[in-house]
Structures are given as structure tokens and as C-alpha cells.
Amino acid sequence: MPAMRFFAMTFAAMPLALALLAPTTLPAIAQEKDTIKEQPEANLSPQQHLDQLYAQLKRERNGDKANNIADEIRTEWNDSGSATVNLLMQWADKAIEEKRTPAALDFLDQAIALKPNYAESWNRRATLNYANGNYRKSMADIERVLDLEPRHFGALSGMATILTDTGNDQLALKAWERFLDIYPANRTAQEQMNTLSEKLAGSRT
């Protein structure tokens, strides 16, 4: 899977025809019936549940099972805890689907203004800025996402893609290394890191 398509799936997730524009609304895929799934405790807060999912993701070495956990994490990312912000995010997604970029940016700006500590609004705007070719603004938004949630593997894949696109292979490699520290079973990230490692090794000979 090419890096750009992978960026679209993990950094936000929308129609592949748009390559990058995509809300993280993928439902968690059901585990196999004979697989025992670790259930969150009923008294866990949303943040504790997210921490639990990240811990599971870090331990899981089966790619398909890890993808199910990653989908659960994406679902958690989509809930801001504010009905108003969630609605603005839905409106932004619809505007993106309809290619109404100014309206989408306006909705995302409003969501950020209302709840600046909600990482996914910054992440969605970073994706939109990338799709519009504004790498500088996209990277600034990515950095804000990672300030708020350093384990946001979607933002890290976006960072790695931008760094690769702009010829910063060494930094892109470090971004993929950070990604794999959080989500070690992701096959595409493994492939991207191997490709960059080979490219950098070849450039030294």
C-alpha cells in the first residue's frame, strides 16, 4: 500500500478518490469468535479506556487484531465529549465529501476554537491542509495534535508522509519509528520504514 494511501487511512479516513480527506469513523471490526477480547472495565473513564487500548495496541503482534484495536482507538478519537464540537466535526466531514473546502475549514476552525484541547479537530484540519497542498499549515496542525496526544499514530503517519514528500527521509524514518513504537504490528508502516532505511543506506555507499 503506497505511503499516501496509508496516510489517508490512518491520518483521517475518507473516500480514496480524495486520497487524504477522511474522517476517522471506521467501526471496530468484530474479533473472531474464538478470540478472547480484553474488555474495558465499566468504571474506566474515556481517557483510561483509551490508555487501555493503546496498551493493547502496543502488545499486539497480529496485524489483523491490531487493526481492530486501532479502529477502536479511532472511534474514541472521534468523540470530543462535546455535542456541539461533534456536530461541527460532522458538518466538516460532509463539507469535505462535497468538496466545499472553505466551509470545511470554517467548521474545523470553530471546533478548535470551542475545544482547543481536542486533538482530532486539529488532525482533521491537518489532513485537509495536506490535501490542499499546504504542507506548512498541515505540519503545524500535526505538531499540535502530537502535543495533545503523542500516541496519535495517524498524525505520525501524516508527518512521515509530508517529510518524505519534501525529501526529509531521515526525519521521515524517525517518524515511522515513533509510529511503530505505538503500533508495532502495522505492516504498511513496517514497509515504509524498511524502504526508507534501504534508501538511506544506499545513499551512504
**How is the quaternary structure best described?**
single chain
* Gross morphology: globular
Can you write the helix and strand succession as a string?
Answer: HHHHHHHHHH
Give the tally of β-strands: 0
Explain what this protein looks like in three dimensions.
This protein is an all-alpha fold and 205 residues long. It has 10 helices and no strands. The chain has helices at 3-11, 46-59, 63-77, 83-97, 101-114, 119-131, 135-148, 153-165, 169-182, 187-204. Helix 4 packs antiparallel against helix 5 and helix 9 runs antiparallel to helix 10. It is globular and about 55 Å long. The relative contact order is 0.14.
Short characterization:
The protein has 205 residues and is an all-alpha fold. It contains 10 helices and no strands.
Furnish the topology, listing elements before pairings.
Layout lengths: L2 H9 L34 H14 L3 H15 L5 H15 L3 H14 L4 H13 L3 H14 L4 H13 L3 H14 L4 H18 L1
Helix pairs in contact: 1-8, 2-3, 4-5, 5-6, 6-7, 6-8, 7-8, 8-9, 9-10
